[in-house]
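#structure-requests
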Amino acid sequence: MTLHQLRLLCAVARHRSLTRAGEELLLSQPAVTMQLKELQKELGAALYERLGKTLHLTTAGDTLERYARRILALVEEAEAAVHALQRDNGGRVRVGASNTPGIYLLPPLLSAFCREFPAVELAITVGNTQTIAAMILHNELDLGVAGESLHRAELTIMPWVTDTLVLAVSAHHPWAKRKTVAPEELLTERLLGREPGSATRKTYEQAFLQRGLTLPKTIEIGGIEAIKRAVEADLGVAILSAYSVAREAKEGRVATLALKGLPITRPLSVVHHKDKTLTPPMQELLRRLHQVSGRGRAGLR
């Protein structure tokens, strides 16, 4: 079994086509077929099958492909570590973040980091917290910033900054001049929110549940930016991170209110695998994140 064969299997899994997998790896289809036949012969198991015109991995193929991705990620990490030793302050750093820190908090910090360390190749992934955690566990990311509590023995978790959730309403909404609103008053409003798995939504739903309060039915909208535009248009109200709506509030496009008697906060945390070998650039980025943690919200300005 070779790394080349594992890369080929992963390409077949992505494209569901021997031809397109070959094109990605600059191989002819006969060469692809021959490599896969050799791999199947070595393992004594069929790795793929055709159903009509569509190619599918078998159970054995799926299993091997999962291991192949992890092996190839480790190979990539090894290459990056060696390259980092050959270049001053160089190497690759793969950073993941959930939506709020990834969109609103990290860009200025990462921009400053890149200016000072231009030899570092930075790759950034934004997704929900569970996706980021899974990618760290599978060594597809080096560092992450998460907006939801994680409890995994394999992870090192460092509290970073505290995020406060606020109620955002249109500048034309009757509540726009108010400072607070009672949670019960939301029952008269249309509540806009992300999908059920989002960290922000889970945070405020748990806060309401713990107090025995009822939320109105949520109108689901795919993404924070889309929710903010809908709030501006007075389609409804939304409970959002204060970080995510700070610009719109400053410009007077939306108003933000506190929920009376129901402060909702959540920790944002920096995460990496406890067994991760941290290269010098990763250590430097962690140090800068630690500095922000020490200064609190002011450190992000």
